[in-house]
Amino acid sequence: MKENSFKSVYDAPIGKMIIISDGESIIEIDHVNHDEPIISNPDELCNLAAKQLDEYFAGARIEFDLPLKTIKGTEFQKAAWQALTTIPYGETISYGEQAKRMNNPKAVRAVGGANGKNPFSIVVPCHRVIGANGTLTGYTGGMSRKEWLLGFEKKMRVNGMLDTNSI
């Protein structure tokens, strides 16, 4: 990570998250799974990401509009993360379906591994990928967070609580 990075701790309904910017792009949004203190020094991009996450959790945003930049990852991982962005809000697909969408139907396990390294939790929705039999599998933020996110999106969609005109 570059020395001139900016960090912000975001208090999500599902626990603390960290937002990291390099001053030009968001380079990471992740769940915090430890108790170590994080020093915040947010810039405008961190604040913008926090605002959009607030809108998402309020049910007023289904897509994010942030300048994201991947600073790590293989070409395959980056392709897997790009494929995640095509999964509509409130819907799920299997790892096999994601592999098919990447024109690599045998890469199911590799897709799962790539999703586990997704640097943009929630914004690039790896939580929307589930097992072929419909079970919830794998999420680096923890299975309870994945279950909460999927339930939240489904509830917002089913109850028509989304105001898509304001997004």
Automatic annotation (TrEMBL):
Domain Methylguanine DNA methyltransferase ribonuclease-like span(s) in chain numbering: 7-69
E.C. no: 2.1.1.63
GO molecular function: methylated-DNA-[protein]-cysteine S-methyltransferase activity
Keyword match Methyltransferase: yes
Domain Methylated-DNA-[protein]-cysteine S-methyltransferase DNA binding: 75-154
Subcellular location: Cytoplasm
GO cellular component, one term: cytoplasm
Transmembrane segments: none
Catalytic center residues: 126 (nucleophile)
Pfam short name (any one): Methyltransf_1N
Keywords (A to Z) from UniProt: Cytoplasm, DNA damage, DNA repair, Methyltransferase, Transferase
Record InterPro entries: MethylDNA_cys_MeTrfase_AS, MethylDNA_cys_MeTrfase_DNA-bd, MethylDNA_cys_MeTrfase_DNAb, MethylG_MeTrfase_N, MGMT, MGMT_N_sf, WH-like_DNA-bd_sf
GO biological process: DNA alkylation repair; methylation
Catalytic activity from the UniProt record: a 6-O-methyl-2'-deoxyguanosine in DNA + L-cysteinyl-[protein] = S-methyl-L-cysteinyl-[protein] + a 2'-deoxyguanosine in DNA; a 4-O-methyl-thymidine in DNA + L-cysteinyl-[protein] = a thymidine in DNA + S-methyl-L-cysteinyl-[protein]
Note: This enzyme catalyzes only one turnover and therefore is not strictly catalytic. According to one definition, an enzyme is a biocatalyst that acts repeatedly and over many reaction cycles.
Purpose of the protein: Involved in the cellular defense against the biological effects of O6-methylguanine (O6-MeG) and O4-methylthymine (O4-MeT) in DNA. Repairs the methylated nucleobase in DNA by stoichiometrically transferring the methyl group to a cysteine residue in the enzyme. This is a suicide reaction: the enzyme is irreversibly inactivated.
Family: Belongs to the MGMT family.
Protein name as catalogued: Methylated-DNA--protein-cysteine methyltransferase
Lineage: Bacteria, Pseudomonadati, Pseudomonadota, Gammaproteobacteria, Vibrionales
